[in-house]
Amino acid sequence: MLLTISTTHFPADDLSFLLHKHPAKIQSVDISSGKAHIFYPELSAQKCTAALLLDIDPVGLVRSAGPKGNDFALEQYVNDRPYVASSFMSAAIAKAYSSALNGRCKDKPELVDTAMPFTAKLAVLPVKGGEVILKALFEPLGYAINAVQHPLDTTYPDWGNSRYFTVELSHQVTLQQLLSHLYVLIPVCDNDKHYWVNQEEIEKLLAKGKGWLETHPARELIVRRYMKGQRSLANQTLDVLLSKDQVDADTAEMESPGINDAEEPQLRIHDLRLLAAKDELLSAGAKRVVDLGCGEGRLIKLLLAEKQFEFVLGMDVSYRSLEIAKERLKMDRMTERQLQRVQLIQGSLTYRDKRLQGFDGAALVEVIEHLDEHRLTALEISVFEYAKPEVLVVTTPNAEYNVRFADHEAGKMRHNDHRFEWTRPEFEAWANRVAIQFGYAVSFKPIGEVDPEVGALSQMAIFKQEESGL
């Protein structure tokens, strides 16, 4: 199977810098059951073409480990996998063009965000549903499509057409956008995958679909096919996409939403924040806990699963978020005893609230950056002076990490509702001042994998009352 990407951008050989592949060399990478070869059949300042050729070993397909029954079109021993663009091609794109797919270009970083005229040609692409599906997937993204459908057998034209197409896609986009569209939609066209689909596919899809899948009119079809028809995984993914839509719609009403920064490269970073907050509250021995800016109740759900927490209060300024939290927690199905452990209230963190007093643990997970910096003083007084929990966990994005994002621009924040994003020294300076002012000791921890140069995606401060036994 063959994928070629051509551009007439001047100078066209900029494509080789974006792909991180030298045009004078034929390069190869190992993929599942075969190899991918990268070469340049055409190279000049006027036009450049990069080719990705997959050489799949049919015997290797049978020998490869994995669950039985990959649903190949003609089963294990006679199938079309070595000859068509399928999920093998997506895997090859991710491995051979990983830098370009993730928006990195060491030698010419300015090219990453440059839209260029590209033509991608796939020979051949299986499309379940025919040209109607092909157009439904690519036309909303702005592609011009030239598709030639192949007959089942040229000797017997009465048999009709096959599901195989030679496809040309043309559009002026960034290379990262083009590769992300191909990575997701090739297996969606095929409606099959060569590997077992599990929870990790949610993260892959949300990462590669960032910025376009949320608003795609065929997103339900895309999600369902990408998850190979597994309803549970598809529903979880759609929940995240629909939830993001609602959060964006409610942004104007929110002062301190505990939301998931879905713009970040991996969904799991928000899970890591929540788990880190829960673990700190557990290790501190807290029993009565308040989630400040609880959003849709994700942290509350984790806390209620731990017997140590006798009572959990969730507070948020957004009534809509609290309604979603009630549904997420299934509060309408809770027993009377379960309901005694949890309560949701509406309120603002910038005003003194007696309902927040008397808790030995509290969490502010990705909340403070949604307040204007001049309003932080009101939050400090309301939370640290009046509510005064014995232990308080605060997380916020690490601004230094933003340079690692594919769509990084100077001054651009991760979310359009962020009022500020702090570097590690800035966060530590704020936390140390607050700790001294209100009688806390404070320590710091990174959240997520630590980059040796810029730190982790998120940063966490753990405040403990100096006289507290926690």
Automatic annotation (TrEMBL):
EC identifiers of the protein: 2.1.1.386
Catalytic activity entry: small RNA 3'-end nucleotide + S-adenosyl-L-methionine = small RNA 3'-end 2'-O-methylnucleotide + S-adenosyl-L-homocysteine + H(+)
Necessary cofactors: Mg(2+)
Methyltransferase type domain boundaries: 290-380
Biological process according to GO: regulatory ncRNA-mediated gene silencing; RNA methylation
UniProt keyword annotations, A-Z: Magnesium, Metal-binding, Methyltransferase, RNA-binding, RNA-mediated gene silencing, S-adenosyl-L-methionine, Transferase
UniProt xrefs under Pfam families: Hen1_L (PF12623), Methyltransf_12 (PF08242)
Domain (Hen1 N-terminal) ranges: 1-241
InterPro entries in alphabetical order: 3'-RNA_MeTfrase_Hen1_bac (IPR024026), Hen1 (IPR026610), Hen1_N (IPR024740), Hen1_N_sf (IPR038546), Methyltransf_12 (IPR013217), SAM-dependent_MTases_sf (IPR029063)
Any GO MF annotation of the entry: metal ion binding
Recorded family membership: Belongs to the methyltransferase superfamily. HEN1 family.
Record-given protein name: Small RNA 2'-O-methyltransferase
Organism: Mucilaginibacter ginsenosidivorax
Lineage summary: Bacteria, Pseudomonadati, Bacteroidota, Sphingobacteriia, Sphingobacteriales
